[in-house]
Amino acid sequence: MTGTQDGLARFRQRLAAAADVMFDAPLEPRSGLADEAGNLLRALVDRTRSTLDRRYAWLLHTAVVGHLPLIEDVEELVRRLELARSSTDAEVWLLQRARELTAELGAPERELRVVSDGVVVDVNYSAQNDRHTGIQRVTREVCARWDAEHDITLTAWLPGGTALRGLLPHEEARVLRFTHVGMRTEQRGDRLPVRDAPLTPMVVPWRSTVVLPEVAQGSSSRHLAALARFSGNEVAAVGYDAIPITLSDLRPGTEPNVFTGYLTLLKHIDRVAAISRSAATEFRGFSEAVRAQGLEGPVVSEVMLAAEVPDAPATHTVAPLESAGSVPRMLCVGSHELHKNHLAVLHAAELLWREGLEFTLTFVGGSGWDMAGFDVRLNRLAEAGRPVRMLGAVTDDELWAAYREATFTVFPSFHEGFGLPVAESLACGTPAVTTGYGSTAEIAERGGCLLVDPRDDHSLARALRTMLTDPRAYRELKEQAVRSVGRSWDTYSAELWDRLVDGKGEAA
Amino acid sequence: MKVVAPLRARGAQVVEALVAQSPRHRAALVDRLQTLLRTLGAGGARPTEQVDDLVEQVAARLDPHDADTMWLALAVIAAELPTAVSVVAARRRAELEGPATVLRDAIGDVAPANRTRRVEVATDEVLVDVNHLARTTLTTGIQRVTHATVTRWHRDHELSFVVWTHDRRALRRLTAAETTDMLTGAPRRSSAAPELPTSVPTVVVPWRCRYVLPEVALEMSRTRRTLALVMHARCATGVIGFDAVPLTTSETTEQDVPAQFINELAAIRHMDRVATISLAAETEYRGWRTMVSAAGITGPSIRTIALPSSVEAPDATALAATRARFCLPTMPMVLCVGSHEPRKNHLAVLHAAELLWRRGRKFSLVFVGGNAWNSERTQQRLAELTEQGRPVESVRALPDETLFALYRLARCTVFPSLNEGFGLPVAESLASGTPVVTSRFGAMAEVGESGGTLLVDPRDDHSIAVALDTLLTDDHVHARLAREAAERPVRTWDEYAAETWDYLVTSNPMDADA
């Protein structure tokens, strides 16, 4: 690893950065890179060996290898240091281990920047992709506000998921100043070409708070687990939902393999701010379960998510159905996935059409997983002349317009961490029919909703019928929806900072 | 929609044309429809062998709003169990186009391989699902529990063993010969899994039964159908809950196991009762049940019925042979039982042992257990210590007789696992009168609660080393713990079997509407 002068210089820099935080006073300088690096390594190894402090072991491993360690890496280093007969033996072992790891993970090309006593935010996906749905929207809205008011360091992962790095300017702009006018949701998923900048240093948090507003995946979650367990940093996450566990039968078959990997990270972190009471229930349940392994699990609290809709009149409008005229318009927003229960919407609508009720039904949302049955059913109804259509993915402006033009919306999902379409519908002053438990019921406490049992088609049909046939009830719900008060991103971001960074107001 | 009538007529013709091709297919279908008619209530039924007449009569007895009878009809006609999603689809179609349309569709969709199967509706029986136990001679801890339990259930109660067909889509009864093989077959530690006969003359559709699952079911085709069975077959249902490790400690399980296990949990979500094998397992299942409550699902009742632990006293010959093979005359032996997977924490055991060896303590260390997923680091460390001349060895699984002799011969055992459903090696060591160093939480602490153990923080190597040192050097403490181990109350498999039967079967009420 020290084969080139550049490599040696970076090695020395990483060790010096670690020594900076491990020692109160600067070490005596030596002349020559090699001497200096050797001197630093000896000092770091000796300090770690004499204390067997796992924070130091984590930092030492990181600085020498140039990648973040796994739990078993830190455990092994501590054991090897304890058993080493001399500092030289310890150094030989560590350098040998570093050679093995860099052969596997790639040579460390970066310098190391320690962020001490700060706030490090992992925005890996939002920094590198233009997708702007659920999680990315939360990440960007929050980071823009936090950045304006606090000193935060935004990070992404190196390609192998083995180290954090700072953002490049265009990545930072994508997080803090995201613009997406006219972009359709389906076009937003492409990963942009990587403009790699090897000079961006790896970021190593120290005595800091690491915030995870995204759902960590793959190997990064294993490195974060070691960070949470050994580094002495506090780690806090936004908790969205545990649908891959609670409704696995309605999700892709192998999804739990990925999600349980995320859970193995969560059990070592300090705090989770769940986006609803319902989501908090899921994460609290997981914390309860890990007590069987002598762990406390994260402290879970709720910070209910925001949903904002711009006041300005929409510039785009959804083209009305040709024959729609003034018949009521029913809108169903959400990606087409089994657990959103769109098949029940189609069935209830057909029952009502057969009763002779007149209304149109519009679905808005990208395609999700295994909805062949939905497509067939929708096409059959359309062919039979029912006024139903699927718009697919739309722009934000088109979406706001669709909410405002709808008579009411319908969203009988089996489970949501936060039922965004209900919150958005109310924010547009449009009443909603939605699931009578979980986060949708929490949002419905603002008024303007009829609650149903999503597992009972007739319960759903009854509520839709009320919306269509009971003008007094509808007017009341409409007024409630118009008056309803949602939550702003300003409020959400401020509360999230208090909860995740300052640890205020935690439920026991 | 006005197309309904022509569809029905065409459907009837299609069905007649279909069954006309094969008299055996036709006979099987007539039999299935008559079975359905009997099960749904044959009052006022016209005796007939005409397929479409039977379809109409069955349809007249189906309520399109009732998913349960729709499940029954789909299962009997298809000669395999439907999934929950297909039941919902059928119920909706029945509501819009009439039950007869759904029945005709189902007849048209019968898989060719199922066309001549006989279908039996089992009612008012206790069905015990032993698919894994009956199909394999692999003897894991879970299989030992299942075997010991169902052997006693079979001895003491009326029950029927069922297994899944080779495609895991239908249930059938275990034959008498298979039952004998399963119950008497000497446990062998082999992964050979002989396939049961694949041609299945009769499949079983449970209806108002008691259904018990005393093992872990990981095959997705099986668990998806079990989910629908649990929801719709109007059975009282129960399962033994061993642990939730794939949910809570997935970093220590093989790649696909979390998905398979979480899909089993989807079925357990709708069961009536889970008998967990320890309070630690109960903690895991309760946490999981809290999670699913967010999706508007109550989940099962959960109660711990603790496993027994029994060891057979080894005879003098076995003791002598085992001593000669595994023990050094000059030093005590420390035993560690369990596969080398990271969760078992064997690297910490090796480190604690090395710290003590360096301090001059004399003891040998014997690991019993095969390699498992991600055991490379342990292998490497074992090799290094062996090369340095440390008295350590690792052997794969041994015959019970030798294992039980090792428990007796050991000065102490060490089992600092990070997560267990039960912690069998702790229980077996204590039952052998040998003190144990084990984890201070979870199932390990629970088993060790009544004495005989030193409890440690398994994430702290020094904590393990201190306890191990105490047991090696402090005869007074060792004698006290050995005495406590010997005085532990004995819990038998008969007690365990009786309590699980009572909780999962006798006292588990059938659905109120049944």
Automatic annotation (TrEMBL), chain A:
CDD domains: GT4_MtfB-like. The keyword Transferase applies. InterPro entries: Glyco_trans_1. It comes from the Bacteria. One of its GO terms (molecular function) is glycosyltransferase activity. Residues 327-481 form the Glycosyl transferase family domain. Keywords: Transferase. This is Glycosyltransferase family 4 protein.
Automatic annotation (TrEMBL), chain B:
InterPro entries: Glyco_trans_1. Transmembrane segments: none annotated. It comes from the Bacteria. GO terms for molecular function: glycosyltransferase activity. Residues 332-487 form the Glycosyl transferase family domain. Signal peptide: none annotated. The keyword Metal-binding does not apply. CDD domains: GT4_MtfB-like. Keywords: Transferase. The keyword Transferase applies. PANTHER family: GLYCOSYLTRANSFERASE WBBK-RELATED (PTHR46401). This is Glycosyltransferase family 4 protein. It comes from Cellulomonas fimi.
